[in-house]
Design a protein that fits this description.
The chain is built from 3 helices and 29 strands. With 412 residues, the protein is mainly beta. The protein folds into 3 domains: 151 residues, no CATH class; 97 residues, no CATH class; 116 residues, TATA-Binding Protein.
Length: 412
């Protein structure tokens, strides 16, 4: 769009220099202008004497905003004129009419309409007594770094703000540069929470909502919250989460990448944006299942009430692996077969710590069965079965013996 007003960032006139004794003095020079509004940079140099260090030199940079060559007037308390010196001042090239933003603690917006100057305190000073300016959408549509307005001794940055549409001022006002409309927001605190030093985390994909991170006032490692602010009306919503579970117990851990990993933006029926917690990743389905039980009807061997351990789905080779472990490592002694026993290629009786144990393979169920056949002393029987079962579970969890597993089990 063609602008009817001119923008200049070149010196408008020769610098004005005044000097005093001992090298004291100041230099003033125009550094930017838009329409009838101009910014003048003044560098003040002083030389003081200190009994401890001798003479010291100081340089302070300040800015003035002029309209038609005259300093602008700011309304102050009780009808008095407010301080007209600023620590920072910028032209807003993306504005629909000549505009300058300037401030120290509070931030002022100066605009020109039909040759008339309009001055507005667009962002009052915050509790930190230091003005801040931050683009919300200049970094690939996301918030950029925060600029802190401070007393400086030099300024090499260009006296203009451009690259985005929305500016966050003093962490409490969002200014739309393209319309010069502002919206008050409150992102520094919520019931039970406070904001860290730089709270702004992200902007929604369509730019309708701002995400701010919060910290629990109770210093809880678990209580985390994100504050969502609707930039159209300032409405706020809290999204709670377990900070420890999501790895966000410190502000440093709460990054834009962290947000994308654990949360997702969605659109409602009317196009409104919502931030939702991502479903936790599904646990990988185990390739095996095991279970301890006590039954009165043994799947094989004697029909006695005794503890047993079941593992499925496995190949017959798992039976050989467990039998070898019981005999070689636990000194289990092979016992004589009894009438009605399954074939010895898939069933064996052992005596382990004076407890008779049957280890068998059920081909129909693709299942390994370990069962105590001790008619009394259930505690000893249970311990022996658990020793064998725990060894199998540990081996499989460590990635061993998995060559003896079959296809994943069906739900039982």
């Amino acid at each position: 769009m063609k602008r009817w007003w001119a923008l200049s960032l070149l010196p408008l006139a020769a610098p004005l220099v005044s000097a005093g004794l001992f090298g004291q003095g100041s230099t003033a020079a125009p550094v930017a202008a838009v329409g009838g509004i101009s910014i003048v940079e003044t560098t003040e140099r002083t030389r003081d004497f200190n009994a401890n260090v001798g003479f010291t030199r100081h340089t302070v940079l300040r800015f003035e905003v002029l309209h038609q060559g005259r300093p602008v007037a700011l309304p102050g308390p009780a009808g008095q004129s407010a301080d007209q010196d600023f620590w920072d001042a910028w032209v807003l090239p993306g504005a629909p009419r000549p505009a300058v933003l300037a401030g120290k603690e509070a931030l002022y917006l100066f605009t020109e309409d039909a040759g008339q100057l309009q001055a507005l305190m667009v962002a009052p000073a915050n509790e930190r007594r230091r003005a801040t300016v931050q683009w919300l959408d200049a970094d690939g549509g996301q918030p950029g770094p925060v600029h802190h307005v401070n007393i400086r001794d030099s300024a090499e940055d260009v006296r203009q703000l451009q690259g985005g549409r929305r500016l966050l001022l003093n962490h409490r006002v969002v200014l739309d540069v393209t319309t010069l409309q502002s919206q008050a927001v409150e992102l520094m605190q919520a019931p039970g929470f406070t904001a860290p030093g730089e709270p702004v985390l992200a902007l929604s994909p369509q730019g309708s909502k701002l995400v701010s991170q919060l910290q629990s006032e109770a210093a809880s490692a678990h209580d985390g919250a994100l504050l969502l602010i609707n930039l159209a009306d300032g409405q706020r919503d809290l999204l709670h989460f377990d900070a420890k579970v999501l790895g966000a117990s410190t502000p440093e851990a709460t990054t834009r990448e962290w947000l994308a990993e654990h949360f997702v933006w969605t659109r409602g029926p009317k196009g409104d944006e919502h931030l939702l917690r991502r479903a936790p990743p599904a646990e990988p389905k185990p390739r095996w299942q095991s279970r301890y039980e006590i039954g009165s009807q043994a799947p094989m061997g004697r029909a006695v009430r005794a503890p047993r351990y079941l593992l499925w789905p496995v190949a017959p080779a798992m039976w050989w692996a467990l039998l070898s472990y019981a005999e070689d490592e636990l000194q289990g002694r092979r016992a004589a077969a009894e009438a009605g026993d399954p074939p010895s290629t898939s069933f064996a009786r052992l005596m382990m710590a004076h407890v008779p144990v049957a280890i068998g393979y059920d081909a129909a169920k693709r299942q390994l069965v370990v069962q105590s056949e001790f008619p009394g002393g259930e505690l000893w029987s249970k311990q022996v079965v658990e020793i064998l079962g725990e060894w199998l579970d540990a081996e499989l969890a460590a990635g061993r013996l998995q060559q003896h597993l079959l296809t994943p089990p069906e739900p039982r």
